[in-house]
Design goal:
This protein is of the alpha+beta class. Helices cover 26% and strands 21% of the residues.
């Protein structure tokens, strides 16, 4: 009798222990299931996107269904015969204009060269009866984002050109293409007759003559100003097209010498008329490339394929971390 009671007590104890363990295991399993459920809520959901059971996250689904908005309506640079333009559809002016200038396109070494100067800014061209090309839009730019000559009417600003027609004296087509509105920027009257003009002449008359070739990148800048201790970004906007007026302009010049070396000169000038009688030297506008990159939002040599033997007329300033 006593032995039977002992067996019954042992069986009861084992049953109680088993129930307690089962409850504990069930609680852990339930807790793990809840944690997994919360984790799944935090993770991006996957969906079946097609017969290949491709797993797409939200960004992929948006790109496939409707696409992403583009920062500009024309992301790729616009190609012309002798220059290339990156156009800013927000401000209706170029981000930058790049030219490759070579001696043989400017000057005649051969007395049998029958090329005729067709630059509209040359007096000989006017005497020959050559009409100045008219400003025209580039139809590759969406109509929402094009600037128009009428935007400049009844304003104090003139139509300035980043790619200079005088850089193509013997090429009527290239000269006419400089009159495209994507190459136009608003300038203060007299700006193009001051140091900016001197810089253009310096490039043509000295750098192009003395070197194998010259790469010139020109463009606008928007720099903030100090107003009673408060730094503000202020600039005018023209016409119905809302063309933005830059505060400054830059030129980044890469000089390819005859021995194959590359030299760099970079300039920044305010969009203003020089004071009468004021003698201004170009060296005063030499600017470290890093400052132009900071102000423009551009990196001029992102792939670091170029290395310069000298920077800014051999001043030795480190302009770019190559």
């Amino acid at each position: 009798m006593f032995r039977k009671l002992s067996y019954a007590a042992c069986a009861l104890a084992l049953d109680v222990k088993h129930r307690v363990n089962s409850q504990q295991d069930g609680g852990l399993l339930q807790e793990n299931a809840l944690s997994k459920l919360c984790l799944e809520k935090c993770l991006p959901k996957k969906v079946n996107a097609g017969p290949n059971d491709c797993q797409l996250y939200v960004g992929d689904r948006i790109k496939r269904a409707v696409g992403f908005p583009q920062l500009t309506a024309c992301c790729k640079p616009l190609r012309y015969k002798d220059f290339i333009i990156s156009y800013d559809t927000k401000n209706r002016i170029p981000n930058w204009v790049y030219e490759h200038l070579q001696y043989y396109k400017f000057y005649k070494d051969d007395p049998c060269d029958r090329r005729v100067n067709v630059c509209p800014y040359n007096e000989d061209s006017a005497n020959l009866g050559n009409e100045k090309p008219k400003f025209h839009p580039d139809c590759r730019i969406h109509g929402y984002h094009r600037a128009d000559v009428r935007d400049y009417c009844d304003t104090e600003y003139e139509l300035g050109l980043m790619a200079d027609p005088a850089n193509y004296p013997f090429d009527a087509e290239a000269c006419a293409e400089t009159q495209v509105m994507t190459n136009v920027v608003p300038i203060v009257p007299g700006f193009s007759c001051g140091p900016w003009f001197d810089l253009q002449c310096y490039i043509r008359e000295k750098l192009v003559r003395e070197n194998k070739s010259v790469y010139v990148c020109s463009g606008p800048l928007f720099l903030p100003s100090d107003n009673d201790g408060k730094v503000e970004m202020k600039f005018d906007v023209l016409g119905e097209g809302e063309v933005s007026v830059p505060t400054h302009f830059f030129k980044v010049i890469i000089i390819e010498t005859h021995d194959g070396n590359l030299e760099l000169e970079s300039y920044m000038m305010p969009n203003s008329k020089p004071e009468e009688g004021e003698e201004v030297k170009l060296d005063e506008f030499l600017t470290p490339l890093c400052q132009i990159e900071h102000a423009s939002g551009l990196i001029f040599f992102p792939e670091k394929k170029v290395c310069f033997t000298s920077n800014n007329k051999r001043r030795g300033a480190r302009l770019h971390a190559l």
